[in-house]
Amino acid sequence: MTTLPPIPHSRPTLGEQDCAAVAAAVASGQLAQGPRVAEFEQAMAARLGVPGGVAVSSGTAALHLALLALGVGAGDEVIVPSYACAALLHAVRATGALPCPADVDPATFDLDPDAAKRACSARTRALIAVHAFGLPADLGALAGVGVPVVEDAAQALGARYGGRPVGGLGRVGVLSFYATKLMTTGEGGMLVSGDAALLAAARDLREYDQKPDDRPRFNYKLTEPAAALGLAQLARLDGFLARRQAIAARYRQGLAGAVLEPPRVPPGRTHVYHRYVVKGRAPAEPRLRALEARGVQARRPVFRPLHRYLGLAPEAFPGTEEAWARAVSLPIYPSLRPEEVDRVLAAAAETAG
Ligand SMILES: *Cc1c(COP(=O)(O)O)cnc(C)c1O
After folding, report:
1. How far is the CA of 323 from the centre of ligand 1 (A)?
2. CA neighbor of 201 nearest in space, from 63, 88, 68
């Protein structure tokens, strides 16, 4: 048993630059969407190599607007990975469309392209490809499904597929800047695209004021202090990612020989380790309690698979069921200190099996 303070599962990386940037935004007197939001959109689009971005109040809002801008609505179907964040379910439902979960590959936790093809019907209007835990999905094979791809890069900002940054590779990409993500604005999100008409549609739907008609629109705007924080965090993103890579390398080395399986990274893809998800042979729950008792807050990386929310037969989603039963997410973030990394490894080794 340890008397050291517990190691949290997540912790944002915040410094004086962040405080100064937010303070300057507040002091400017312009709090609602303004020039800092525009600057944040341009900086992020440049970073991802796409022509433009639309900043919004959350990743869920970005998903919602991306689907609406693609023309998704009532009577349509949208393919989603079954082992994913419930935000996908809510965003699809909010458009009136039906979410259709497809199984994931339990080795990479990413959408299985064959399962996605099988989930496709005449009503399918889009597919949401999540880059799970920071590993790019198999975009080449998913393009073969034949429907527009929404890249959910909420966990994968900075990851590369075939050498190119994810987020800008599908019809539209979605980012989240929630407090636990790779960089944060507290709450926030963005959609990025090379499609000017799609960006214009999302920009129109983001706010309700001074419109020529009464079609449904939203208030999904990001604030100036949030955008200022986003710019300050984006300037340090490469350092954040390098620190995550170093911790992941240490975990991989430290877990060698243990029966806990480290994340698999197929050739041609880079992993940014938003989460460090390991899989044992034994179930996740007792392992989580054992880690907690040793002062390490680990989590199931997905609260509940999406097919279970929808009441679909678990047997149809064997990859997801395997991941959900056995996968555990260990703490990984730039401010995790080397001695904390060692404590996580020691605790994980004691629970191996
Ligand atoms: C966090 C997350 C979202 C939702 O983003 P919010 O900003 O929390 O609304 C969507 N998809 C994935 C994969 C996420 O990790």
Report:
1. 19
2. 68
